[in-house]
Amino acid sequence: MKSCRREFIVRSAVGLVSSAFFPLVAHAAEELSETDPSAVALGYRADATKVDKGKFPRYAAGQNCANCQFYQGSASSKTAACPLFTGKTVAGDGWCNGYAKKG
Ligand code: SF4
Fold first, then answer.
1. CA 24 to ligand 1 centroid distance, Å
2. CB of 22 within 8 A of CB of 15?
3. Of all protein residues, whose CA lies closest to atom 6 belonging to ligand 1?
4. Which residues pair with 91 in a beta bridge?
5. Can you tell me the distance from the alpha carbon of 66 to that of 64, in angstroms, rounded to the nearest whole number?
6. What distance in angstroms lies between residue 25's CA and the mean position of ligand 1's atoms?
7. 98 lines ligand 1 (CB under 6 A)
8. Model confidence over 90-101: pLDDT tens digits?
9. What HEC string does the chain produce?
10. Closest by CA position to 91, among listed 37, 47, 39, 55
11. 0.90 exceeded by the pTM?
12. Domains in the chain, CATH or no CATH each
């Protein structure tokens, strides 16, 4: 009985320490805002069809994050991480000037 209580106390302590030091584990990454300075610099739009083609002439119809080699999700993922925007997710339908067609 005594060891059960001790085990409970140890497990509780481990749980408290884990939640104190790894609070981000349970939270999904935040979606990149179009107004984020790094997004503005690269012309990121969550809807690729809204890209400012005058400012970002590299954009071509049909390009989007879901078919970019940097997109970390599957082609059908609504959002996924992108190494160009660390700690954020981008929209599968989005686009930025770092676009590179998936090979
Ligand atoms: Fe989307 Fe590719 Fe730009 Fe990342 S680099 S935001 S996946 S277009």
1. 23
2. no
3. 96
4. 79
5. 5
6. 24
7. yes
8. 999 999 999 999
9. CHHHHHHHHHHHHHHHHHHHHCCCCCCCCEECCCCCHHHHHCCCECCHHHCCCCCCCCCCCCCCHHHECCCCCCCCCCEEECCCCCCEEEECCCECCCCCECC
10. 47
11. no
12. 29-91 (4.10.490.10)
Which amino acid appears at position 45 of this protein? R
Residues 6 or more apart whose CB falls under 8 angstroms from that of 48 comprise 59, 63, 64, 65, 93, 94, 95
* Residues 44-67 pLDDT 10s: 999 999 999 999 999 999 999 999
